[in-house]
Design goal:
Strand content: under 5%
CATH superfamily: MetI-like
Order of helices and strands: HHHHHHHHHH
Structural class: mainly alpha
Radius of gyration: 20 Å
Helix content: over 70%
């Protein structure tokens, strides 16, 4: 493992940078899209569409990640674009489900009290529902982030790059050092990402909610 690191430093750095790019791109899209879709569904917009979307997302979560990557390859081809598309599909599941669950879990009497003091629907959403649901929403985002890091290694099979390149190269060449480097960096990255999002969660969730746990 140490000899592989010493002899392939540049290759490891390129793969690591590519992995970070895949992660940041797909997570940014997943969070923005997941929030919008979750809010749309939870606020009663397009009930039929909402049920259909949740069913599709639930089915995609039950599908192996390699199958989702292959599916995106059929429609988008090879490279980073289909890899990011597959990661977004996979990461949308926990984000959307937790946004819907968090918003629907806000007590009705709290919403009624907000209406009673003259808040508009937008104000109730931004100042009451989203803050109260923030802990559940952040839990979904953290799950999506750790899923993303692991699934991104599969992106290498369609030319997406990342640490998967090192792992698959190690498998082809029967080089245990390469496999350990790729898998080890992926695991360390997942721990770092979870720590970062846990720190963000502490900043985002109102203190009254976190202290009540």
């Amino acid at each position: 493992m140490i000899s592989y690191i010493a002899g392939h430093g540049e290759q490891i750095w390129i793969a690591f940078s590519s992995h970070i790019t895949l992660f940041l791109s797909s997570m940014a899209i997943s969070i923005i899209l997941g929030l919008l879709l979750g809010i749309f569904i939870a606020t009663g917009g397009g009930k039929g569409f909402g049920r259909a979307l949740l069913t599709i997302l639930g089915a995609s979560q039950a599908t192996p990640s390699i199958a989702v990557v292959a599916f995106s390859f059929l429609f988008v081809g090879i490279g980073k674009a289909p890899a990011i598309l597959a990661l977004v599909i996979y990461c949308l599941v926990p984000v959307v489900f937790n946004v819907v669950s968090g918003l629907l879990g806000v007590p009705g009497e709290v919403v009624e009290a907000a209406r009673g003091i003259g808040m508009t629907r937008a104000q109730i959403l931004l100042k009451v529902k989203l803050p109260l649901a923030s802990e559940v929403i952040m839990s979904g985002v953290r799950s999506a982030a750790t899923i993303n890091i692991g699934t991104a290694t599969v992106a290498a099979v369609i030319g997406g790059g990342g640490l998967g390149d090192i792992i698959f190269t190690g498998l082809k060449m029967q080089n245990n050092g390469a496999i350990l480097v790729g898998a080890g960096l992926s695991a360390i990255l997942a721990l770092v990402v979870d720590f970062v999002f846990a720190s963000v969660e502490k900043k985002v969730v109102p203190k009254g909610l976190s202290q009540g746990r």
